[in-house]
Amino acid sequence: MTTNVSKLWTKDFILFTISNTFLFSGFHIFLPTLPIYVLNQGGTSTDVGLLSAIFVFCAIAIRFSTDYGTKKMGKKYYLYIGCVLCFVAAISYILATTVPRLLSLRVLHGLGFGIATTLYAAIVTDLIPKSRRGEGIGYFGLGTTLAMAIAPGLGVWIVDNFSFNTLFIVATFSQILALGCLSLCSIPDDRSIHIETQKNSSLIDKLVEKRLLFQAFLALLFGVCIGGVLNFIALLAKEAHIANAGAFFLMCTACICLSRLVTGRIFDKKGPAWVILTGTVIFLLGFVVLSQSHSMTSFLIASALYGFGYGTIFPALQTWMFNLVPSEKRSAASATFYNMIDIGNGVGSVALGMLAGKLGYASIYGCSAIIMGIFLFSYAWFVIKEKSSLAHNLDEAEE
Which listed site, 66, 126, 295, 384, has its alpha carbon 20 to 30 Å from 51? Predict the structure, then answer.
C-alpha cells in the first residue's frame, strides 16, 4: 500500500521537474544559434570559442561558492537568484548588438546557470522519498534530456523562419515559465539548518565536498568521454563517410530516456554497484563500436550503447553522491558533481581534439574506451575494497 512517505509524483516534484526542463530549454536553444549570431554581428571563430569558454568557466567558478551561498540564503532563495540571472541574461540578449556586450551577458548567464543547475539537483533530492531516490532522479533528468533533444532544433528553426529577436523572446518566455513553475512549488526554507552548521565549516568545505573525492574522480573521467561525443561526433561521421550524423543524437536521446525509466528502480533496490558497473560496460562498448564505425548500422548501434550507458551512469553517479552526504551538504555535492563533469568535458575537448589532429577522429573514441576502462577498473576496485572492509567489520563484531 502506497503511503505519503513513499509517494514520488507529488505536485511539488512535478512542477519542479517542469521548471528544470524550461530552464534547460532556455540554455540549449542557444547552443547552435548564438555562434551564428556572433558571426552575423561581425565576430570571428575565436569569439565563438570564447562564447562557450566564458559560459562554462563562469558556471564552474560560481559553483565553488554555492555551498557558502546556501548557508547565507538557503537553497530556495539561492535557486531563485540563479533563475532570475538566467532570465535577465535571456531578455538582455535582444540588446546585445555587439560582440563585447554578448560576451558580457554570457558571464551573467553562466553565473545564473551554474547556480540554478546545482540547486535544482540538490533540492530535488529533498522532494523525493529516500527509498525512491534513484528512480526519482532518473525521471527528473528526463526533462533535461528532452530539452537537449528538442530545444536546439527549435532554435535553428526559429532563426531560419523568423529572427534572432524572436529566438530571444522564446528563450525569455522559457525562463519565465521556469520561474513560474518554481514559484508554485512548496520548498522549505532551510536557512536555519545551514546557520547552525556554518561555524564548523572549513575553507576547504566551502570550496568542494572533500568526502566525495573518489566519486569526483569518476565524474571527471565520465566528463572527458562526454566531451568527445558532443564535440566531435559529426566530424567522425564525415571522416567515416556516414551521411546523417543527426541520427546519432536521435537514437541516443531515445535510449537515454528508456534507460532512465528502468535503471533508477534498480538503483533503489540493488544499490549503485549494479547500475554503475552495468552502465560502464555498455558505455565502454559504445566507444569501442564508435572507433570502428564505417556504416550507418554500426553508427546507430554505437549510439544506442552510448545512450543506454550515459542514461544509466549519469543519474546513478549523481544519486550515489547525494546519498553519501547529509542534506545540508547536498549543494556542495551537486556543485562537485557538475564541476567535475564540466571540467572533464572541457579538458577532454581540448586533449581529444589534439589527438584527432594527429590520428584521426576514430582515435578519440578508442581513447575514450580506454578512459572508461580506467573508470570501470577503479570503481570495481572500490566495490571490492568496500565489501572486504564490511566483511572484516562484521567478523570483528561477531568476535
Answer: 66
pTM above 0.85, yes or no: no
Q: Which residues are CB-neighbours of 138 under 8 A, at least 6 positions away?
A: 260, 261, 263, 264, 267, 315
User: Which grid coordinates belong to 206?
Assistant: 566551502
On whether the CB atoms of residues 229 and 306 are closer than 8 A, the answer is yes
For residues 223 and 292, state if they share a domain.
yes
Question: Could you tell me the CATH number of the domain that includes residue 281?
Answer: 1.20.1250.20
pLDDT digits (tens, 9 = 90+) for 145-189: 888 888 888 888 998 899 999 999 999 999 999 999 999 998 776
State how far the alpha carbon of 391 is from the alpha carbons of 64, 285, 384, 386, 398, in Å: 37, 32, 11, 9, 11
183 shares its domain with 249? no
In the chain, the number of structural domains is 2
207 backbone dihedrals φ, ψ, rounded to 5°: -95, -45
Q: Which domain holds residue 159?
A: 11-187
